[in-house]
Each structure stands twice: as structure tokens, then as C-alpha cells.
Amino acid sequence: MFRAVVRLFGHWGLTDEQAATLLDLGLRSYRRWKAGGPGRIGRDGKARLSNLMGIHKALRIVFNEPARGYRWIKAPNDAFGGRSALDVMLGGELTDLMRVRRYLDAERGGW
Fold first, then answer.
1. DSSP secondary-structure letter at 91?
2. What confidence tens digit (pLDDT) does each residue in 42-67 have?
3. Which end of the chain has the lower number of beta carbons within 10 A, N or C?
4. Measured between alpha carbons, how far is 104 from 106 in angstroms, rounded to an integer?
């Protein structure tokens, strides 16, 4: 799942610093994991990966064209007070990722 999330970050056009924040890793740790694969992933890390993949899945359902979903992440959104989903997620807390995922799940008609 880590490799899939790293590829997703590429589609979203994230910097290593942003990616590290979303995964709650230090920048050096993220770059080391990105280059060679993750080491041991704790419960919080697994929950972050799961939420990020859930966000990706929901975007694929909401938008027929994948590129639109990739762009949506950085677009201002009224649901987040004019901030983008990425801005919300960069708060760095697991609950920030969960907030975006819940919003998208509701938009697609899922749970």
C-alpha cells in the first residue's frame, strides 16, 4: 500500500515535505522509505495509508476522468471553507485525512 500511496502523491504533485506530513514521517525517513520501501509501519501509519487510498478510491468514483480527481485535491472547496482538501490534510493529524475521506464518501453516496 505504501508504494501505491507514493505513486498517488506523484499524481497529486506533492513535494516530499507534503508527503512526509501526510504520513506523519520525518522528511529523511520518508525519503529513505520512498527510495527503498517502508520499514515497519505502525497502527497510525496503516490508518493514514488506508485513508489516503480511500480518498483515492472515492475520487475515482466521483470523477470519471482520473486527472480531474488529481486536480481536485488542490482546488479550493466550499466544503472546507475555501481551502483545498490538501490544505486540510496538511494539518498533519489523522483526523484531517479522515475529514476529507468522510466528505468524499458522502459525495459518492457511500459510508
1. T
2. 899 999 999 999 999 999 999 999 99
3. C
4. 5
